[in-house]
Amino acid sequence: MARIVISLCGEGRGHATRVATLLEHLAADHEILVFTWADALGFLRHRFPPGRGGVEVREIPGLVFQYTGGRLDVFRSVSSGLDYQARVLGPLVERLIDEIDAFGADLGISDFEPALPRACARQGIPLVSVDHQHFLLAYDLAALPAALKWHAWAMGYAVVWMCTSAASATVVSAFFRPPLRRGWEHVVQVGPLLRREIRGAAPVDRGFIVSYLRRNTPFSVLSALDDCGLPVRVYGLGARERYRNVEFLEIDERRFVEDLVEARAVVAAAGNQLIGEALHLGKPLLVLPEGAHAEQSMNAHFLAAMGCGEFAPLEEASRERIAAFVDRMDGYRPALARVAGKLDGTDDVLAVIERHLAVAARGESAGAVGRAWPP
Predict the structure, then answer these.
(1) How far apart are CA 341 and CA 279, in angstroms?
(2) Backbone angles phi, psi at 254, to 5 degrees
């Protein structure tokens, strides 16, 4: 039995879902200490409550997106990130050094969180980076529009590199898999990490749309969904009074998975994890990236290139746009049939982790073969 320390970004639910999948498999054989904040903190503490063997979840301060007038504010988000780096990151690294020393960590795993990689490097503890965001650095993004390629370059070297400056292995989890860039051949490419409920599901079509939306979604989108011709079940906005054909549901992991398995199609934010789960289940997608959220826009472009769905900027999600998707969504099923049931990357990631645990157990050094800065 090894002792593994994990940190993850607390913003949204994609990171938490990915890490929860790893915990499902690792907790039976290893002691695990998890550090996170915000959405991921509540999600993981609910799934792995205190007293449940093998996993302890602790809160740390972390980066969060900043919104102004209901829209992602890039300037405020960057400013907040710089303030975090200047005032919070250093003391947090010192705290984690103390806590992982007391825990006796053999291996670190980080999903887009900057403090643990620094603490592990200081203490000589091998670290495996498992996230989606490293695609910005490692993947050949030549197929993207010029503006998004510029955003990828800026975000990759200003943000992703800050989060993981060195790792013994770098794993990128994504529903798309373009070629790796020169100098990044060491990166391990895997599909989305799918929870057991998704991997073992038998998809059916109960004739409704399932939607996961961020809290800043404008009412015009909900009105457009109401007019799409199908019942809609919306998660992410909290429970509220039903709006004609639109039902609003509290986040409940079990029910959300059931609805995803039984939905005819998905209309949702353009997060990598949800797109991967829907593709695995063979569900056509209309994704709604926020205009200022470049990473979601990149995900949306790759989805469209696969022929498995389409996208519209959240701010342009009109009645006509959503109704048009509903009319043509069956046309995406041939492409979906080629990927459904074939995307799960969980076993590949677990193999990387177990390999590094074996190296650590022998007292050897795996080396920084997955460092986040090109060689």
Answers:
(1) 8
(2) -65, -45
Superfamily, domain 196-339: Glycogen Phosphorylase B; (3.40.50.2000)
Over residues 109-152, the pLDDT tens digits come to: 999 999 999 999 999 999 999 999 999 999 999 999 999 999 89
- Any idea what DSSP says for residue 292? T
Residue type, 153: W
pLDDT (0 to 100) of residue 364: 65
**Using an 8 Å Cβ cutoff, are 64 and 41 in contact?**
no
- Closest listed residue to residue 265, CA positions, set 214, 217, 212, 219: 212
For residue 1, pLDDT over 80 is answered with yes
Cα–Cα distance between 317 and 330 in angstroms, integer? Answer: 20
Rounded to whole angstroms, the Cα distance separating 162 from 215 reads 28
Percent helix / strand / coil, the chain, rounded to 5:
45, 15, 40
Separation CA 295–CA 244 (nearest Å): 33
Burial bucket for residue 95 (CB in 10 Å: 0-12, 13-18, 19+)? middle
- The one-character DSSP state at 228 is S
- Token representation of residue 253: 């992991």
Domain positions in the chain are 3-193+345-361, 196-339
Quote the tokens at residue 265. 């199609």
Q: Do domains 3-193+345-361 and 196-339 have the same CATH topology?
A: yes
What is the residue-wise DSSP string for 100-149? HHHHT-SEEEEES-SHHHHHHHHHT--EEEEESTTHHHHB--TTS-HHHH
Do 206 and 233 form a contact (C-beta atoms < 8 A)? no
Q: Which of 215, 180, 22, 6 is nearest to 99 (CA)?
A: 6
Residue ranges of E strands in 220-363: 232-235, 246-249, 265-268, 285-287, 309-311
User: Which CATH architecture best describes the domain 3-193+345-361?
Assistant: 3-Layer(aba) Sandwich (3.40)
Coil, strand, or helix at residue 108?
A: strand
pTM above 0.85, yes or no: yes
